[in-house]
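Sample entry (166 residues):
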Amino acid sequence: MLSAKVVIIGKALSAAEIGGAGTAFAVWLVLAISVGARIRFAATALLFSAYIVAERLEPFQFSTYRRAFGWMPFYSFLYGSTEVNIMSFLEKAFLYGALIWLLDKSGLRTGVSIILVAIMLFAASWAETYLPDRSAEITDALMALLIGVIIAVVKPPTESSRKGMA
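Predicted structure, serialized as tokens:
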């Protein structure tokens, strides 16, 4: 995402983003030396999912009353700025796809990874009904399911599934 921000007109990198990327890279190197790949992927997936939930529930100023939940998929994409909607869609596609991939690499089955991400996003969307100026709807959970199906279809077969075919 950092490299994409460099090329997108009107976007700039902050010192915190550069410092965060450097810190993440240093932690990744330390983990690469000290722990196995599955633990690295699981830790990264846990932190990544916490980031996604925190970003969705920001600014954490919940109201006492709940707004309606949107059951029509992609409703908020149909209104507003096309540029903002496309950038939001692409960012979400990356985030949700990367989280499914990380969970898959940490040892979970692809189907379980897809369901966990979809449930997490649905719960976060439901919590957004208590946040002002947020569109709480089913879209993100459905996006995760669609992205997960694409990953499952495109994913090359594993060694164990190839032995079962032979």
